[in-house]
Amino acid sequence: MAEITPVKDQITADVLVVGGGIAGITSAIETAEVGKQVILLEKEPSLGGRVAAMNLYFPKMCPPTCGIEINLKRIRLNPNIRVLTLADIEEITGQPGNMVVTIKLKPRYVNERCTGCGECEKVCELERENTFDHGMSKTKAIYIPHLMAYPARHIIDPEFVKDESMKKVAEACPYDAIDLDMEAKTITAKVGGIVWATGWKPYDATKIDNLGFGKYKNVLTNVMMERLASANGPTKGKIIRPSDNKEVTSVGFVQCAGSRDENHLPYCSAICCLASMKQTTYIRDQYPDAEIHMFYIDVRSPGRLEDFYTKKQEDEKVHFHRGKVAKITENADNGNLILHAENTLTGKMTTTEVEMAILAIGMVPNAVDSPPPLDTKLDEYGFVAQDNDNGIYGAGVASRPFDVSGANMDATGAALKAINSGVRR
Ligand SMILES: Cc1cc2nc3c(=O)[nH]c(=O)nc-3n(C[C@H](O)[C@H](O)[C@H](O)COP(=O)(O)OP(=O)(O)OC[C@H]3O[C@@H](n4cnc5c(N)ncnc54)[C@H](O)[C@@H]3O)c2cc1C
Fold first, then answer.
1. What is the model's pTM?
2. Whose CA is nearest to atom 31 of ligand 1?
3. CA spacing 20 to 30 A to 120: which of 47, 98, 178, 209?
């Protein structure tokens, strides 16, 4: 069985994988299944990364459970994998084949005796903003991160752990699993090579002043839409607009919101067109008569994903408009949004009123905020460069924008490089 709780202050492995999203999970499994020892390190309380927050995956339109759960089972059953959650890298020294990593393990305040029974939540009076739902819902101060969380164990938000009322919560646990005095721990790991799979965060839409996010309640982002449509999301999957909980009859998708724009993200995130097309399906399934308007510069649906686009074009309720939305304003009478754009095919300025607008924001590599150590080269946008020879290899969206299948292929290649890391010198 894969270990979840570290027992020693110093551990060894052939490969360290940093980041437990789909790419990191894939790298770890590929490494372990050829008989190598691997540490899979995740800074959040559970594995899964951004994919765990999706409603459905394109192109097959299946829920993330269908991919992630199989992989979690492979992790659970493989003794070559050691999973560390709530783990931060403090330092990495050494060279390929012989690297020493200092890791800080933050306290969860709940130990491995937790069964996830939820008795603690029943008596907990404090609530926190649910970051998994992008602030659209709340959880108790003691919570399980999400439906597919691995480990499936509660955690206490550190902001609330010292609150007097948490003692009552600890007493309510039938398994004596809550430890309000749990402390951080530092351990070291000796490894041969490192896969850097720290993924992405959504571009901060409040920076795109002209599109009204944060100003108008009915302007949402694509990642929020995933949660809104999800059966375990803030509205139990019912797509309603935030200002008045109204069912929607018209929705606008704003492609390249901040992307391919020198003032924001100069690059294309490669998946946003397909993600929006996927999200039109969420709306059409609930509201067959809703009119959907998608504004684009040019639609990018590489390779076999072109079929997905072609199918969408056949939908008479999905209207494709060639032109970038320059501005969103609000109709103060009804909370509707007015999308102002120039149609680049006709040259005409257009205004389109919709009840809700979804901004297709791009993916920003997390390596921008926490770059890998040992002089790892990043490209001009902060993705891990391909030509590193320091024992650290980028995988998944840490190395470039990818969909899930692309991220997985990249992660397999990175695992191979990390396994051979020491040998290559
Ligand atoms: C709106 C939207 C919809 C999408 N829909 C689809 C779809 O339907 N189909 C599809 O194929 N693709 C889709 N994608 C793309 C998909 O989300 C990515 O391909 C996928 O998330 C890549 O996985 P990853 O593991 O590289 O990164 P992530 O999912 O970001 O995982 C990275 C992990 O690393 C962890 N981490 C970050 N920093 C550190 C650190 N310093 N130390 C330790 N851990 C760290 C994070 O917490 C996270 O768990 C969509 C993207 C968007 C924006």
1. 0.96
2. 21
3. 47
